Amino acid sequence: MNAPTRPHQVAPAADAAPAAETGSKRMTMIQALRSAMDVMLERDPNVVVFGQDVGYFGGVFRCTEGLQAKYGKSRVFDAPISEGGIVGAAVGMGAYGLRPVVEIQFADYFYPASDQIVSEAARLRYRSAGDFTAPITVRMPCGGGIYGGQTHSQSPEALFTHVCGIRTVIPSNPYDAKGLLIASIENDDPVIFLEPKRLYNGPFDGHHDRPIVAWSKHPLGEVPEGYYTVPLDKASVFRAGEALTVLTYGTMVFVAEAAANETGIDAEIIDLRTLWPLDLEAIVASVKKTGRCIVVHEATRTSGFGAELVALVQEHCFYHLEVPVERVTGWDTPYPHSLEWAYFPGPDRVGAAMRRAMEAA
Amino acid sequence: MSPHEPLRLHVPEPTGRPGCETDFSYLRLSPAGEVRRPPVNVAPVDTADLAYSLVRVLDDEGRAVGPWDPKADPQLLRRGMRAMLKTRVFDARMLIAQRQKKISFYMQCLGEEAIATAHALALDAGDMCFPTYRQQGLLLARDDVSMVDMMCQLMSNARDPLKGRQLPVMYSVKRAGFFSISGNLATQFIQAVGWAMASAIKGDTRIASGWIGDGATAEADFHTALTFAHVYRAPVILNVVNNQWAISTFQAIAGGEATTFAARGTGCGIASLRVDGNDFLAVLAASRWAAERARSNLGPTLIEWLTYRAAAHSTSDDPSKYRPADDWSHFPLGDPVARLKQHLIAIGAWTEEEHAATQKELETEVAAAQKEAERYGTLIDGHTPPLATMFEDVYKEMPPHLHDQLRQAGA
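Predict the joint structure of the above. Result:
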């Protein structure tokens, strides 16, 4: 576990490698991700970036805008609409010695690439005893709350955490997004890099009926312009607290923070950042301290990553628990279009679970 | 009343099944020497006729005829002959080892030896093949890959370079340009294209060679590979080994009826050839042609190698249950070893005595390699690698949860 960071700590965080002396500025998560790819394209001639619409246009969310113009078409280019092809080609490039960073336009579209992720990228090192490796980064926007319906809103992280040999990373803010993406690109194993698209432009707290806060107004929107990394496989204490532990990641980090503020419960919010391999030490330390724990994610509940978290808390912290561990998640339905706010586990549902955890026992 | 008859589902069937001889007229053969050889810078669309005919060099008398004659140095052909024989002897020996339960599983390439061995001779050092499980000839044609190492992989023994993690025959030999075999079908085809794209991105001179069987061309990865190869003009050779059978499934079920697999290539804008895979000279010539195209920035070539899987799919099936037991003996393109032998003898570069002596010498070599490999263990002596190796290489560095599980597993 890393030294706990203060809530909304301004970069550079205690656990980050030092930033180059180029200053910092306010960035959205989109700009931070773009900056990460820019830095790595500049630093490492083996980094290439491709995917649907990422070249000339710069991606449907504009994460790669300007990179083709800067680095040329042989390093940043458009790909056919073929997720299996994009990841399969990336595996071959990785075997050659490149470090491809590919974009799946929406996480909801990764399924055709499943075989290349699960059977190929994840196991290439193992099956060849290290003869070949696939140091690839597969970026994909995930999560809902954008009226995306059931094909632009999914959070499929549990499908990745079940696979041995890959990393599953999910940042919650621009500072972490850039540092984690650089660390992912530099990592010699394949990384699934999930980008909560509801956080692209601001720290959305689940109150969809309120004005959007911009990252420019948030300390975690302050991002160094140069190279730095945020370590993989390490959680951060997003909000320190004594009353109960919230284990969460991605969009739900800010929802949990809103719930803590609105209920007045002194929750400790752990932002997992890398889902697998997991920073179990950080989780156990927090739960042993508070004795109460809830798990929050946007994905559907059954066999979700929350189930793994609950199992681990039970295995490691059972005698420290005052109350049962509750999950607050999306319902076990496809992500509905018009009813998305009834599906989304917003601050009211998270707050109610916090209260139940405090009132029980 | 509808003017139409009721709709019917068409399910292709081979003409030959057990007890019923195959009518091989479906193969669309061309006489040796008849098919034209365009320059390597031919436009892909102008290879359409080549995708429906058959490039052949050796005629029935063993003469090299026509524009595809590679005019190969007899020394090289003798080397090819030896590589094919070595592959066949190796396979025969390993089949017996499987029957003796020294290895768990085996896959022969009987009848298909010319394709991988001649192709290997057409590639350069540093090129990368992305093979299926039936291209052992790519390794056995090389002088720098030891049969002992290959056998240690087959036996999952203490010297298995893959630490006992892979089914037998799923070799990985990066230094010999042989990509790790997956076992999932078709996945390597698009990876080959990706590797070739990487070589082009880096301004390298190396090319990739991807391999697939007729059956697996039905997978999405095959079509994806063709699209990517065409789009990025990747320096890759896309080899489709059409050996007529995917376990018990005839090639028509993969989509080969009334068309060819080579034709898939021209449909995607890829120069395509359909080649007699049992004709060592034709394989050498076509492989060189495709390699030259790739290396000259002219893009990919798809080659359908027409051949016949003479043995079972693997040691787990009995082909006499789904096709005529003597089918191979009627296959019009014959046996690649016999055909090259006939040619070499005809040009005075080989003799019956030399053939017999080489065969015997290789049997001794293979037996010696097996003896050596068995010193490091076989499946029957209960050898398994150290438990800790199960947890290694999942990630580059072992994460804490695997350290925990290693401890729980009792290491």
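The mean pLDDT of chain B is 97.
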